[in-house]
Amino acid sequence: MAYVATRGGERAIDQSERLYRAELGRIDAARVAEIRHALPMLIDRVMGEASLYEPDLAALALAQAGGDLYEAVLLLRAWRTTQPRLTIAEPVLQEQLFTLRRISAAFKDIPGGQILGPSLDYAHRLLATGVLQGRPYVPAPVEPAATPAPARQPSLAAWQKAQGLVADPARADVAPDDIPDLTREPLLFPAARAHTLQSLARADTGGMLALGYSAMRGYGNAHPTVNELRLAEADVRVRHPRGTVFSAGRVKVSQAEVTSKGKSGLLELGFCATLGWNEVKVISGATLDLNAPGAAKGSPVEEEFFLYHTEPVEASGFCIHFKLPHYVTFQSSLDALRGAKAAPAPHELEKVPA
Amino acid sequence: MSLLTTIPVPDAFEARTNATFEALMWALSRPGTVQDLPAPGRTGIAEALLDRECRVFCDDPALADRIATFGAALVPLPLADHCFLTLDAGLDRLAQVAVGSALYPDTGATIVAEAGFGTGQRLRLTGPGIETFADLVLGGIAPGFWALRAALCHYPTGFDLFLICGAQVIGLPRSTTIEVL
Amino acid sequence: MTIATLTKPWEAMSYGFLDASAKRELRRKMLKAIAVPGCQMPYASREVPMARGWGTGGLQVTLTLLRPSSVVKVIDQGADDSVNAASIRSFLSKVSGARETWDTLEATIIQSRHRIPEERLRADQVLVLQVPNPEPLRPVEPNMSVARQMHADADYGRLWLILYEQIVRSGRVMQGAAYPSLVNGRHVMTPSPIPRWDVPKLHMAQHLTFLSAGREKRLYAVPPFTRVEPLVFSDVPFQVEDHAALTCHRSGLTGYFMNEIPQGGGGSQFELSDSNLGIKAIRQAEGAEARVGSTWYENGKMPQ
User: Fold this and answer.
1) Assigned domain for B141 exists
2) Is residue B1 assigned to a domain?
3) Which residue of C has its CA nearest to B13?
4) Assigned domain for B7 exists
5) Which residues, other chains included, contact C59 with Cβ-Cβ below 8 Å and sequence gap of 6+?
6) What does the pLDDT read at residue B90?
7) Domain total for chain B?
8) Which of A21, A185, A188 sits opposite B1 (nearest CB)?
């Protein structure tokens, strides 16, 4: 007695999953460790989109998903759902970040200096094909600078504010524990600023790039200049029940501030930050944020539009759900279609039978 | 490879809050019917519904202390999403209870109050959850309450009411029209 | 006080998967959904171990309700053995210890995608409908904040207009499934993509229905004995699918919603969409024991 299009029910889904997992083979701690160490940028991207900073779990998720990013993010998000909230960390100010890379396109030099840090920006993108012929690629050793750059750097926007170049938006004084939390409350519009930034932080990198790029090409009003891009490590400072604030560890963070001249005659800023190092994401996100004020409904730079459509778990899930059977809705449409073919002309409307 | 291997068993907290919620759910779904709570009093309701995401007003200091241990913030009445009130007197402050907006009716508060079931004012209920009408006799609630409720709650804005008597609960959502007989 | 007092002993997974704070949020929103029937209540919608769009909204409501004594039925397109229904049902029982069933009469909770069973639901049963798109106004207004304002203003003129245009163009309302319906005379809701055949089952029903969209983070409810009225014009009555006279080629039953199975030589065969009703009818015909409950439709008609 099988009534459904995809037959076999439980046995079928069990075997289908086995087929997929057979391809991935045995997963052990060594594989997870190798993924973690070999693919730090991918780990960062997944942790950012999952809004869960745990490199080992991210590597495990990638191993289990065989590298399917949307599956890996969903695994981590679903695991996150099961975890209790122990405490809320103290907010981190820009100048407190342990900064490893900090550049500005707006000025030749900036207070605190341009720090190139780790980057492939000026590398020649050549495949090291020798590796496949048995000649391992060993990167040249880093030669430390004579004087290391200071680890803590001021915010460029602070200088611009002091110069009266940048509008200083009114700051909402919210106690750290009362900052709205997107994972505990729905996103509503107009969105709380915290919700906007949290949504951007966990948005899909590719989706954000697509919409951000559309704004950069001209579908937004503001052309971004990178005011400041930072890759850094942030202390997670939490309060012990006895009152002492201590660092529970460090997380990698990236943030971008982009700017453009606003209608007011002052510079306007767009901002995006995320867990992990992911430059494309934060520049795209900051560009969207910069373009959002006053954007027309339904434009790619309207906040509701880009926040809804860059949510990786929602977007990917809905996309693949179209594989599910839809034959009841199809049958219902078919009935209306057949009814219409047989229906009398509109002028005989009142005679349509019930 | 099933990753779900343990046989799940609810602990006492889970079992109690689950049963409390089910009583509240049916109470609100069938206004005027009496549902059984797993334990008497209002604490169980707070335990099943409230945590640090909630803002609570409570006019009973002992209960307020208990609610604070669930993480909810104790706030002035107009800011509260859950209000633990006595309704037998002091109705003037009822006008301060949040009724939400047409845009977000869910921001209308939930009021939890003690009442007496079976003696007192005779009420006739109509609305969702009730096939025709339901009659209900309630005590311990000031006589002017029902008229005030009607004046304050303009559907879909309004507040929702849980009345507790021992280990029993009656739910009166804002969608219920209440006539004093 | 120590950090340990702020938490509780580690366990691999909370009972029913969702942690206590997720359940409390759902409980609060489910109560508000009952209090304002048909009005979409926003909720945080935690991620669950299934992809968005695959029933995660229904899943969160069901997980909040489940207890070890629950008996749970899950259907997709009316069928219990559909692959996704099987996956959801097995997850629900594994994380809660609840018993699984295919029988509508046995279930305490029925989670469904796109159908309401043909057997009448009782006052003690809860129906949880999975909702892909909770917004009936989406065809006329894709922007969620504008649509919300339209609900606040009870501004449904543009919905009426598209129905009217369909009548003018095609001689009838062309809306297939997910027929927009006015709840308690105030909020228009989408009843989820159930066929029109199933919409009257929500009107003044005995049971409680939750409708939950996990991806879109909205949930709403139809309490028992609540008016659910499809949007219609007084001179163009609501029409369910023309299935009343079709006969299931497997069970021989007539007068229920059918799946159409195209046949090689042209033409179609039909089989019951409510697969377990078909199974029970066949068992009865074979002399085995199977109890069929009273159905909403009698001889293909819904009694008024």
Assistant:
1) yes
2) no
3) C20
4) no
5) C48, C50, C88, C91, C92, C111, C214
6) 80
7) 1
8) A21
- Residue C294, both tokens: 């009273």
Using a CB–CB cutoff of 8 Å, tell me whether C142 touches chain A. Answer: yes
Amino acid identity at B93:
R
* Cα of A190 to nearest chain B Cα, Å: 12
Is residue A185 within 8 angstroms of chain B, CB to CB? yes
In A231-260, the residues whose Cβ lies within 8 Å of chain C are 240-242
Distance CA B106, CA B13 (A): 26
**C48 vs chain B: nearest CA distance in angstroms?**
14
- Testing the interface with A: which of C52, C63, C192, C219 to mutate, by most A Cβ within 10 A? C52
Q: Which of residues 82-141 of A touch C (CB under 8 A)?
A: 82-87
Within a 10 A sphere around the Cβ of C65, how many other Cβ atoms? 25
What end-to-end distance do the CA atoms of chain A give, in Å? Answer: 35
Cis omega (within 30 of 0) on the bond before C191? no
Please state which of the four CATH numbers 3.40.190.10, 3.40.30.10, 3.30.1330.90, 3.40.50.11310 is assigned to the domain occupying C20-230.
3.40.50.11310
Q: List Cα–Cα distances, A21 to A64, A66, A199, C83, in angstroms.
A: 8, 8, 32, 18
C106 and chain A in contact, CB less than 8 A: no
Residue A335 has its nearest CB partner, among C5, C242, C282, at C242
**Alpha-carbon distances of A70 from A26, A276, B136, rounded to whole Å:** 21, 17, 54
Beta-carbon separation of B29 and C24 below 8 A? no
Residue A3 has pLDDT above 80, yes or no: no
- ipTM at complex level: 0.97
Query: Which residues have C-beta within 8 Å of that of residue A305, sequence separation ≥ 6?
Result: A211, A295, A297, A298, A299
Chain A environment of C147 (Cβ under 8 Å):
none
Residues in Cβ contact with A335 at an 8 Å cutoff, skipping those fewer than 6 apart: C176, C241, C242, C243
Q: Report CB contact under 8 Å: C30, B25.
A: yes
CATH of the domain at B174: 3.40.50.11310
Identify the closest residue of chain B to A17 by CA–CA distance. Answer: B1
**Size of the A and C interface in Cβ pairs below 8 Å:** 221
Task: Report how many Cβ contacts below 8 Å link chain A to chain B.
Answer: 4
For residue A190, is the peptide bond before it cis, meaning its omega torsion is within 30 degrees of 0? yes
B6 inside domain = no
User: Looking at residues A127-142, what average pLDDT do you find?
Assistant: 96
Chain segment A212-252, per-residue pLDDT in tens: 999 999 888 888 999 999 999 999 999 887 889 999 999 99
Considering only the beta carbons, identify the residue of A186, A314, A352 that sits closest to C44: A186
In chain A, what residues touch B104 (CB-CB under 8 Å)?
188
Q: What's the pLDDT tens digit per position in C187-243? A: 999 999 999 999 999 999 999 999 999 999 999 999 999 999 999 998 889 999 999
The residues near B127 (Cβ < 8 Å, ≥ 6 apart) are B31, B173, B175, B176, B177, C184
In terms of DSSP bridges, do strands B35-36 and B55-58 run parallel, antiparallel, or are they unpaired?
Answer: unpaired
* pLDDT value of position A351: 38
Q: What is the DSSP letter of A294?
A: T
A317 CB within 8 Å of a chain C CB = yes
Determine the structural domain holding residue B88 and report its residue range. 12-180
Write out pLDDT tens, residues C66-92: 999 999 999 999 999 998 999 999 999
Alpha helix stretches (DSSP H) within chain A: 9-24, 29-38, 40-50, 55-64, 69-81, 156-162, 193-201, 205-214, 279-291, 303-309, 312-321, 327-342
- Is C226–B128 a contact, with Cβ atoms under 8 angstroms apart? yes
DSSP C202: G
Q: Whole-prediction pTM value? A: 0.91
Which residues in chain A have their CB less than 8 angstroms from residue C241's CB? 331-332, 335
Query: Which of C30, C31, C87 would best serve as a mutation to test chain B binding (most B beta carbons within 10 A)?
Result: C31
Angle at A25 between CA A22 and CA A27, to 5 degrees: 135
Alpha-carbon span A22 to A186, nearest angstrom: 38
